[in-house]
Amino acid sequence: MVQQYFYPKRLKSNDNIELGQEDSFHLIKVMRAVSGTPIEIVSSDGEKYEAKVREATIPTPIDILSKVTKKFELPVKVTILCGLPKQNKADLITQKATELGAHQIGFLEMDRSISSWDQKKRKSKIERLQKIAKEAAEQSHRTRVPKLIFLDGNQEIDFSDNLVIVCDEDIAKSNHPFSLKKTLEEHPNSHSILMIFGPEGGLSDAERQLLKDKGAVFSSLGPRILRCETAPLYALSVISALTEL
Length: 245
Hints:
Elements: E1 3-6, E2 16-18, H1 21-30, E3 38-42, E4 48-53, E5 61-68, E6 77-83, H2 89-99, E7 104-108, H3 122-139, E8 147-151, E9 163-167, H4 169-173, H5 180-185, E10 192-197, H6 205-213, E11 217-219, H7 231-243
Parallel strand pairs: 1-3, 6-7, 6-10, 7-8, 9-10, 9-11
Antiparallel strand pairs: 2-5, 3-4, 4-5
Function: Specifically methylates the N3 position of the uracil ring of uridine 1498 (m3U1498) in 16S rRNA. Acts on the fully assembled 30S ribosomal subunit.
EC number: 2.1.1.193
Main location: cytoplasm
């Protein structure tokens, strides 16, 4: 498979560039690229180009060839906002949600969150997750890297998105008819969606009421109860199936 890298500037066909030190090392030492090896480069404005290695050195000189016209992003911008999970589940969510097309990925401390991110370490945690997202975006050949964010609580949630959906396990338990598929079909013109998921213990009654008061739509992900790291990935897959397949 052709390797892809992101480049921090705008590009055009026939440009000549150098990859950064880290990407050059990966391309030459890990992927064993040689002169003439084809690769793909995504510019800062999200345009993808076919390219080739001019010389197998570090930094690596690259010849930009032609623009790729195929679309690689979901037709709807989806932000997933997850209650802070325990252990390293944030890594898994970030990696897989990036592969599945999330536009933005966020974590927030909720009433039932088991984990807590020390304020002094939050910046380094987000930077590490941002790196995971970049690598996953390259691997899945996306044309943008999702932005990683952290929120202190529900009061910080931005409700300016076209549609805010809370995926609530209590709806699945109650046989309520509000499925995610039905919710999306009832809002066909939503081009930007914010999806909120609780942590391992789910949402508290106070959080449900706050989100309802702000106009969020509550939805089920089916009759089964999903783990906190599974739910956002399932939801992204449903959106992909309804909009891309």
